[in-house]
């Protein structure tokens, strides 16, 4: 049983089903509301793991191939270019910009083709260990006894709490804005713009669409009325010189704007109890500056299935999975927090170097 039908959960479901597991999923949201936000970057490690599941090509076809990050300084002048590792070979892009709903559809369809059953509108209310099984009680009153429970229910994971795996969710003084806009002709790669107070950027999602993002520094976490989102983002973008400032006029529909706090979580010790484990953001949620949250989640799903196949028992497989994944995920989460701090201190050159180093680290095998 997998709780949470997001990137980590759906990837794990497909990987396990392909290895002979009978997989069911419980998702709190309805089928039309299982994803939020506009876009994301599938970095090289994401594509490498998806390639193992036969899904890299469809993601490349339905997204926008990217291989270069262009950094722009506070005066609107070029500050350097990072050429990302092409982990699928020289003929394919290093990463792909993709709309979140498109990625979710691809992963959901792949899971269903593998025989995975997804139950919507269900949450977990209790978890107990029964010898080699896990007893799971759901919000609709049903009880399942399963050989494996996987909590893939996000940074505020209920499964994590029910297993007694305690960690904090930390806010880092930043709010990230994203908005869907028409793709400017100049946007053929990722662009990152340093500002005198905030940072911004643009990621192509298709030939016609992109998303603009802005990281607002030194603000308290909170919400704004929907009617204020688009005008406020326009104001924040207008102060940037050059190209990203020009995108402010493209942010015109409030429904296209989302605003989220920069939060992280990291389980420093165990990720598992008995035959239950948490993966993805439930175990290790990085700040978005590294664009690697999806990569870590997708890798988790694949590596979990690999280690369970290699070991004689579920418990041994989970122990091996955590041992293999924890150092990599810990490094990325901590680096993302450091990058967030460097941004707020206006130490952009140091942040760029650390981002580049982390991409090189992520290029190593999962």
Explain this structure.
With 366 residues, the protein is an alpha+beta fold. It has a domain of 217 residues: 3-Layer(bba) Sandwich (FAD/NAD(P)-binding domain). Helices cover 35% and strands 28% of the residues. The chain contains 10 helices and 20 strands. The strands form 4 sheets. Strands 6-5-14-15-16-13-17-20 form an 8-stranded mixed beta sheet, sandwiched between helices. Helix 1 packs parallel to helix 4, helix 1 packs parallel to helix 8 and helix 9 runs antiparallel to helix 10. The longest helix has 31 residues. The mean pLDDT is 94.
Task: Give the structure's gist in a few sentences.
The protein has helices spanning 7-17, 44-52, 56-62, 100-113, 158-162, 226-238, 243-246, 293-310, 314-344, 348-362; strands at 2-3, 24-27, 39-42, 64-66, 68-72, 78-83, 95-99, 117-120, 124-130, 133-138, 143-146, 149-151, 169-182, 190-194, 199-204, 209-217, 257-266, 272-273, 276-278, 284-285.
């Amino acid at each position: 049983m997998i709780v949470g039908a997001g990137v980590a959960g759906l990837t794990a479901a497909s990987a396990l089903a392909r290895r002979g597991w009978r997989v069911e999923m419980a998702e709190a949201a309805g089928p039309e509301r299982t994803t939020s936000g506009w876009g994301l970057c599938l970095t090289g490690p994401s594509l490498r793991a998806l390639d193992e599941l036969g899904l890299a090509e469809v993601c490349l076809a339905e997204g926008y191939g990217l291989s270069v990050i262009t950094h722009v300084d506070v005066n609107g002048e070029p500050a350097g270019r990072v050429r990302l590792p092409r982990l699928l070979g020289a003929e394919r892009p290093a990463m792909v910009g993709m709309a979140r709903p498109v990625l979710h559809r691809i992963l959901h369809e792949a899971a269903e083709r593998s025989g995975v059953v997804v139950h919507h509108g269900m949450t977990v209310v209790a978890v107990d260990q029964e010898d080699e099984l896990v007893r799971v009680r759901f919000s609709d009153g049903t009880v399942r006894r399963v050989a494996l429970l996987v909590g893939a229910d996000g940074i505020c994971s209920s499964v994590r709490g029910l297993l007694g795996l305690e960690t904090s969710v930390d806010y880092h003084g930043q709010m990230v804005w994203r908005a869907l806009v028409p793709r400017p002709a100049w946007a053929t790669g990722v662009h990152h713009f340093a500002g005198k107070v905030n940072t911004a950027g643009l990621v192509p999602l298709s030939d016609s669409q992109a998303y603009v993002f802005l990281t607002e520094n030194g603000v308290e976490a909170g919400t704004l009325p929907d009617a204020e989102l688009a005008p406020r983002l326009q104001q924040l973008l207008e102060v940037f010189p050059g190209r990203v400032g020009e995108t402010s006029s493209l942010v015109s529909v409030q429904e296209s704007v989302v605003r989220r706090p920069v939060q992280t979580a990291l389980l420093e010790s165990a990720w598992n109890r008995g035959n239950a484990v948490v993966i993805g953001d439930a175990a290790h949620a990085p700040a978005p500056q590294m664009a690697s949250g999806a990569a870590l989640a997708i890798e988790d799903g694949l590596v979990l299935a690999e280690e369970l196949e290699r070991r004689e028992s579920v418990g041994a497989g989970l122990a091996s999975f955590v041992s293999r994944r924890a150092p990599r995920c810990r490094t990325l989460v901590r680096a993302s927090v450091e990058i967030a701090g460097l941004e707020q201190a206006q130490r952009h050159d140091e942040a760029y170097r650390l981002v580049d180093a982390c991409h090189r680290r992520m290029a190593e095998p999962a």
